[in-house]
Amino acid sequence: MWLSSRARAAAWLLISMFIMEVQGSYIKYNTTGGIVDGKLNVHLVPHTHDDVGWLKTVDQYYVGSNFSIQGACVRNILDSVVVALLKDPSRKFVYAEQAFFQRWWVEQCVEVQEVVKQLVDSGQLEFINGGWCMHDEAATHYIDMIDQTTLGHRMIKKQFNKTPRIGWQIDPFGHSGVQGYLLGAEGCYRGSLVDFTPYPRVEHIFAGAFPGHYGPPNGFYFDVSGSDSPVQDDTLLYDYNVNGRVNDFIDAAMAQANVTQTNHIMWTMGDDFQYQYAESWFREMDKLINYVNKFIFPLLVIHRWPPDFSQQQAAQPS
Ligand SMILES: [Zn+2]
């Protein structure tokens, strides 16, 4: 009897393990979507906004000290993003502030620098704005705007032979005409200005006003410190929620589409000092792209760059 019970328990354990292995096994997510005309195209833009000195000093933000003031460490962000990008060539990321990137770059060994060069060449990592910082537009003299932007661009040119294609002024608390001129000036960016504040329309510059902050829609904040629900797609575990999360996605996308004149909307997937554990963001975006594209054909999710986004916007009346 004892043997029989034990045998039954062992058999059940074996079956359970088999089921778990099947249900909880590796899932290859399809993240290779592209723009589809006639559908609502949702462009996910993974980014981090790293103030070059705010609640902490630039040094404290870089090394991650004084966590009691703000849990921010830019060194962790850049380390983490590189690892996450290497996991999947369809993953992409934009980075702006050269004050941090250059500090990190000189600390890397030749092998890591080579890997990062490849990520930049392939377009997985792209520098946007590319200035030393994302300057304020109200109190800053235009000479200083030009100088600090030139400094960052020169370094990017020297190290990667690239020139940033896109402006990215997402947190200046209002825009100036000078900034508009600089963004539109020949030899500067050919791209777009992106911000959550309204901007006077200037020729050749795409101006967008986000419904809220420069973060994702409510419920899609996937930082390691965040509390929004991850996409739970293991049917053996409690809180399986793929259908619910896909529906949440549709609701958020439709809400934004209803205040957008074109069929291209952008989700800024990041916020202040995000991606210190980049995988937490990328993993959830991979799942969303996979499941939304798989189940909801009126919608499409894409990992795309702002340049693609602005080109689509520019091609349509707004
Ligand atoms: Zn800021």
From TrEMBL:
Domain Glycoside hydrolase family 38 N-terminal intervals: 41-187, 203-294
Residue ranges of the TM segments: none
Xref: InterPro entries: Glyco_hydro/deAcase_b/a-brl, Glyco_hydro_38_N, Glyco_hydro_38_N_sf, Glycosyl_Hydrlase_38
Keyword GTP-binding: no
Keywords of the record: Signal
Domain of life assignment: Eukaryota
Signal peptide positions (record): 1-24
Pfam families: Glyco_hydro_38N
KW Cell division (keyword) present: no
Protein name: Glycoside hydrolase family 38 N-terminal domain-containing protein
